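[step 3/7] inverse_fold.run input=structure_tokens len=999
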């Protein structure tokens, strides 16, 4: 008898080759709808229901499955067989036969031990370990009332197993007290250490990780695998060899995010554990994932060698796959171990093809990718997701050989496969964009645009983005089409605006995932928590249904109806999230069209968004309802070099304030602003949505022309032409504008400053030396900021707040801050350091540093993380973060981290964030903050107020201020992210601004 095929073709087969841990259990929507079965050894309530029969040498009388502790997978399976139950029969069943073979495919067991179950019936107990996950398992062969009974399950299910085997009432107690079999199970397997709910939680997290990895959401998959590993290590111990599987999955998802050092440490740990793991494929998987890691590290030659070794390891587990034979491959499908090895072999070959292609061996790569598909076909395993990946790999080889048309054809076939396996998900969109790129290279612009537009529809529907390099060709195609002219040009420019918003950098994607996860477990708002979790559950249900359709391989009208109903439930769940948390869409970076932006802009405002690709970029402006788009003739690397030079010349160094690099600032203006001059001239407020390295740049210091000598004060700075508002994305502006023009909070101000840094020992505990020693040294160097005491005190007095609204020194702790009810203040001032992932490699999200609470064991309680800001309620016109270097050192990391921090404060209820891009001069910072607040008190917008303060410093430099203050180091570090307070509905930059202060 063979296990039914449907039970073994898994819904969640991922690119990482391991079948789902529940490969041998029934996934049933009604898993808990059974009869009471008493409690297990952990006192968790259990239910029993009819189940599928396992393979056996005898006729099956009845098969039942046990569910305990709310787990949706069976905690145990009990099968009653026909025939004699003599001692010899029990010995034979426990030692060999179909049931024992079936069991050994899923668990590894020691020799059977003679014992008895409750009531005295003879039994054989097998102490086992599950191959997937390494959880202790138990198997029993017993003499039942009608014949032999074979059963297996988690050790804690043993009381239920023996009651059912003895034929007792499902909820009744065991006759004769505690059985000898249960005593053995408890003694040998430590049954009290974990229960079905622990195993269930682990398997749910592993399945979620596979789902997310399959849809290429590596940041979210990381969190799922990290949580699964934590469950496993808590129950089984940190050095349990079976933790290697979750560790490997976690490592490869870190590696996919280019967090190579973290991934390497996990790969090394897994390699030491793998030889003792219950799953025999673990050693091959270590080699496989080391090969993937080498690919991510840009070492294709090393990857080829490692992946070839992995293939040999997989082949050793499925020798029949390559041997001549007759018939089909059903015996492989009946063995999850061999199935896992087949999938691993196919993926290792496909990954080696990728490595060969990157090493310039395109012909070999193409042949090997085809061979990977043949492996799946010979074994009767052709999941659409894996076939799609193989086709995409073959296309990659053709691309490197210059065969654009052939590559496009393969990519379109791959997109079709992805569209079956996971329709409307990221892999399909990515592949459509790749196909569009190849069609464009072949000069077939119409076909390219068709592919791009189909992919863009998916991205907008799922609110996800793609790497910039994939999106740039779409803009290029639109720009070429627009250059042809005709009545469609205006529509094409508007489409370019929408296309630019489909790009998303990895740091932003990770922040979005963290924010969504945080909201899903938010304790502060149960409505938000329930709504977000409902949306996540709806997404999961859809993925499972799509995968079920993939596995069935046939038209199924009933399944299509279920998918349609699930899609409707997802839409309803999304509406509930939008109602419970209006800012949720802003966190997800939902794209908006140019018309929505035009409606949000005032009559004296313009918006500029930009996108930087590897070789070229685009700047796009919206003003007066029209869109203007221009190509930038240089790529991200060249722009990053200019930004770096400007920043280095703006920040104080060991030799003091350096000479400002006016030439680089002027070149950036020529590239980014000058091409749009006709659209932007006369705009009082300029809203900029920067990209990549430009996120680390205060746009006010760009120069529209040369500097005459050393006369920096009179230079044509961009701030002299426009008040400038920075936004993470155009969609952020639309969301903020929908919130109204100003705060309704009753109190004017609360400020925090002059923090007491955590000690070196506290930082060392937060940043362990073996992984984060450099981070510990950098963080320990954070000095106290005594100048912030005067800054906060002066700001409090200016706004007329009570003396106790300045919280300083050791009192500036996060618990004290949270006790202030921050939604009662129109201005919240945090004068302290900020730590960024771009600066500290072990820091996963931006954090603000406060004083540690008394007795804190580590520095962690002093870090306010961006995701934790989501739990704070605010109604603030401004959050002032006059911290050191919040803008970051340039490049993607720092600017993207600042963007994530701003999004968190916007979600919390702030309208604007006034931050510093580098370590500030105390006197200049105090003057900038005070004059900005004074002007805002007078009725000006936040943007106009900050511009006025900066103009004051420029105009007074060399008069009432030192001449050096004309240098951007003094006046330019502060920027406004988001609107802040707006002056009436027009939001004009200069409206109602008070007269400049005289010094």
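[step 3/7] decode complete -> sequence:
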């Amino acid at each position: 008898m063979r296990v039914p095929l449907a039970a073994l073709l898994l819904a969640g087969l991922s690119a990482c080759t391991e079948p789902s841990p529940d490969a041998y259990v029934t996934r049933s929507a009604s898993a808990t709808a059974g009869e009471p079965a008493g409690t297990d050894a952990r006192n968790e309530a259990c239910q029993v229901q009819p189940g599928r029969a396992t393979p056996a040498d005898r006729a099956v009388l009845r098969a039942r499955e046990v569910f305990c502790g709310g787990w949706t997978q069976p905690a145990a399976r009990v099968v009653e067989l026909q025939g004699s139950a003599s001692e010899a029969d029990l010995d034979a069943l426990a030692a060999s036969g179909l049931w024992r073979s079936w069991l050994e495919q899923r668990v590894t067991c020691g020799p059977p031990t003679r014992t008895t179950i409750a009531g005295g019936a003879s039994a054989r107990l097998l102490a086992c370990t599950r191959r997937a996950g390494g959880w202790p398992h138990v198997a029993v062969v017993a003499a039942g009332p009608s014949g032999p009974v074979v059963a297996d399950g988690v050790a804690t299910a043993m009381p239920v197993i023996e009651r059912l085997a003895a034929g007792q009432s499902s909820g009744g107690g065991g006759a004769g007290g505690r059985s000898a079999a249960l005593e053995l199970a408890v003694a040998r397997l430590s049954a009290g250490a974990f229960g079905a709910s622990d195993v269930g939680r682990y398997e749910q997290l592993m399945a979620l990780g596979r789902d997310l990895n399959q849809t290429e959401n590596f940041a979210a998959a990381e969190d799922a695998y990290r949580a699964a590993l934590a469950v496993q290590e808590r129950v089984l111990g940190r050095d349990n060899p079976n933790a290697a599987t979750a560790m490997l999955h976690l490592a490869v998802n870190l590696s996919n995010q280019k967090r190579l050092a973290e991934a390497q440490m996990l790969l090394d740990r897994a390699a030491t554990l793998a030889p003792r793991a219950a799953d025999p494929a673990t050693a091959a998987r270590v080699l496989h994932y080391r090969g993937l890691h080498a690919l991510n590290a840009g070492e294709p030659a090393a990857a080829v060698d490692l992946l070839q070794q992995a293939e040999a390891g997989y082949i050793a587990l499925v020798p029949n796959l390559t041997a001549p034979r007759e018939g089909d491959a059903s015996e492989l499908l009946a063995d999850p171990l061999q199935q896992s090895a087949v999938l691993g072999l196919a993926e290792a070959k496909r990954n080696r093809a990728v490595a060969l292609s990157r090493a310039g061996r395109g012909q070999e790569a193409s042949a090997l990718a085809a061979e990977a598909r043949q492996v799946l076909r010979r074994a009767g395993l052709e999941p659409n997701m894996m076939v799609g990946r193989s086709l995409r790999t073959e296309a990659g080889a053709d691309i490197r050989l210059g065969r654009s048309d052939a590559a496009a054809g393969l990519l379109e076939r791959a997109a079709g496969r992805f569209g079956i396996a996971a329709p409307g998900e990221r892999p399909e969109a990515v592949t459509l964009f790749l196909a569009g790129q190849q069609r464009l290279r072949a000069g077939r612009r119409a076909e390219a645009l068709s592919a791009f537009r189909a992919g863009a529809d998916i991205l907008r529907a799922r609110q996800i983005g793609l790497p910039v390099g994939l999106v740039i060709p779409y803009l290029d195609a639109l720009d070429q089409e627009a250059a042809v002219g005709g009545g469609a040009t205006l529509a094409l420019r508007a489409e370019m605006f929408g296309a630019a918003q489909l790009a998303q950098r990895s740091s932003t994607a990770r922040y979005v995932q963290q924010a969504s996860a945080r909201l899903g477990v938010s304790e502060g708002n149960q409505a938000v928590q329930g709504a977000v979790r409902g949306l996540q559950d709806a997404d999961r249900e859809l993925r499972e249904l799509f995968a079920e359709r993939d596995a069935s391989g046939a038209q199924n009208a009933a399944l299509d109806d279920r998918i349609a109903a699930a899609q409707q439930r997802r839409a309803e769940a999304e509406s509930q999230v939008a109602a419970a948390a209006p800012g949720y869409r802003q966190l997800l970076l939902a794209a908006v069209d140019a018309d929505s932006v035009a409606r949000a802009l005032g009559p004296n405002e313009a918006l500029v968004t930009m996108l930087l690709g590897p070789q070229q970029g685009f700047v796009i402006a919206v003003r007066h309802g029209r869109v203007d788009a221009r190509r930038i003739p240089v790529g991200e690397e060249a722009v990053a070099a200019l930004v770096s030079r400007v920043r280095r010349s703006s920040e104080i160094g060991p030799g003091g304030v350096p000479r400002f690099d006016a030439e680089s600032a002027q070149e950036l203006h020529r590239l980014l602003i000058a091409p749009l001059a006709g659209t932007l001239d006369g705009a009082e407020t300029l809203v900029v949505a920067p990209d990549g390295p430009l996120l680390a740049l205060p746009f006010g210091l760009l120069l529209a022309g040369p500097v005459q000598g050393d006369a920096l004060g009179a230079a044509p700075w961009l701030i002299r032409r426009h008040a400038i508002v920075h936004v993470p994305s155009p969609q952020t502006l639309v969301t903020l504008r929908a919130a109204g023009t100003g705060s309704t909070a009753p109190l004017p101000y609360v400020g925090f400053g002059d923090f007491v840094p955590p000690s070196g020992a506290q930082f060392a505990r937060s940043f362990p030396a073996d992984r984060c020693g450099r981070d510990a040294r950098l963080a320990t160097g954070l000095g106290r900021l005594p100048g912030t005491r005067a800054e906060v005190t002066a700001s409090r007095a200016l706004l007329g707040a009570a003396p106790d609204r300045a919280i300083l020194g050791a009192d500036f702790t996060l618990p004290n801050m949270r006790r202030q009810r921050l939604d009662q203040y129109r201005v919240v001032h945090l004068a302290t350091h900020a730590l960024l992932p771009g600066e500290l490699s072990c820091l996963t999200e931006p954090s603000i540093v406060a004083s540690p609470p008394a007795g804190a064991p580590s520095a962690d309680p002093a870090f306010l993380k961006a995701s934790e800001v989501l739990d704070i309620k605010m109604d603030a016109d401004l959050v002032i973060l006059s911290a050191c270097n919040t803008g970051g050192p340039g490049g993607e990391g720092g600017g993207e981290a600042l963007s994530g921090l701003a999004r968190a404060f916007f979600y919390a209820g702030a309208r604007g964030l006034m931050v510093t891009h580098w370590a500030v001069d105390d006197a200049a910072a105090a003057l900038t903050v005070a004059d900005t607040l004074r002007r805002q008190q007078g009725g000006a917008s936040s943007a106009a107020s900050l511009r006025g303060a900066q103009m004051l410093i420029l105009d007074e430099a060399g008069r009432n201020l030192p001449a050096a203050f004309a240098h951007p180091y003094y006046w330019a570090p502060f920027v406004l992210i988001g609107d802040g307070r707006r002056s009436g509905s027009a939001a004009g930059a200069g409206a109602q601004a008070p007269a400049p202060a005289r010094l």
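[step 4/7] annotate
Residues 741-978 form a domain with the Rossmann fold fold (CATH 3.40.50).
The radius of gyration is 32 Å.
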